[in-house]
Amino acid sequence: MPAFSQTHETTIAAPPATVHALVADFHEWIKWSPWEGLDPELKRTYEGEGVGARYTWAGNKKAGEGAMTFAGIAPGEIRVDLQFLKPFKAENDITFALTPAGEGTHVAWTMSGNRNLAFAVMGKLFFDKAIGKDFEKGLAALKVAAEKG
């Protein structure tokens, strides 16, 4: 199965600890996730804290259904295992790399994984562009949330 990886980056005028707090707690994702608002009746479940904490969601066709689990939390890196159940099944790895940049923070958001051949072709044609737009929207919202303090 072909591997893929996509990274989007921004610099935020807030200290790494502020950005880290928004990313390393699934409860905070509602403030900046690009997928918030896709379903006003989205069902969310939160379990645990720190590494191993889990967030599940189930919603309409746009929001789909899936789960995320924190696989690693360190000052400069947050890793998430992402599992989509609907509208299609997929497992991906998410990494947020947080690097001090002057008085701010450079954020690199990466999603990687493997796709079957059909999804690899569809990815190149459609998914990668859509994911890229979502990541850019999410990074812009993360920037606003972090800079508001």
How much of the polypeptide forms β-strand, as a percent range?
A: 35-45%
| Spans where pLDDT lies below 50 across 5 or more residues | none
Shape: globular
Tell me the CATH topology.
Answer: Alpha-D-Glucose-1,6-Bisphosphate, Chain A, domain 4
- Strand order of the main beta sheet, please? 1-7-6-5-4-3-2
Q: What is the percent of helical residues?
A: 25-40%
Distance between the termini: 42 Å
In the CATH hierarchy, what is the class? Alpha Beta
> What is the number of strand segments?
7
In the CATH hierarchy, what is the superfamily?
START domain
In total, the number of domains comes to 1
C-alpha Rg (nearest Å): 15 Å
Q: Helix count, per DSSP? A: 2
Mean pLDDT: 90
The CATH architecture name reads 2-Layer Sandwich
Characterize the main sheet: 7 strands, antiparallel
Order of helices and strands: EHEEEEEEH
Structural class: alpha+beta
How are the SSEs placed, and which strands pair?
Blueprint: E1 3-12, H1 16-23, E2 43-47, E3 54-58, E4 65-74, E5 77-86, E6 90-101, E7 104-114, H2 117-148
Antiparallel strand pairs: 1-7, 2-3, 3-4, 4-5, 5-6, 6-7
Describe the structure.
It is globular and about 40 Å long. The chain is α+β, with helices and mostly antiparallel strands and 149 residues long. The mean pLDDT is 90. It has helices at residues 16-23, 117-148; strands spanning 3-12, 43-47, 54-58, 65-74, 77-86, 90-101, 104-114. The relative contact order is 0.25. The chain has one domain: Alpha-D-Glucose-1,6-Bisphosphate, Chain A, domain 4 (2-Layer Sandwich). A hairpin with a 2-residue loop joins β4 and β5 (77-86). It has a seven-stranded antiparallel β-sheet. The longest helix is centred in the last third of the chain and has 32 residues, at 117-148.
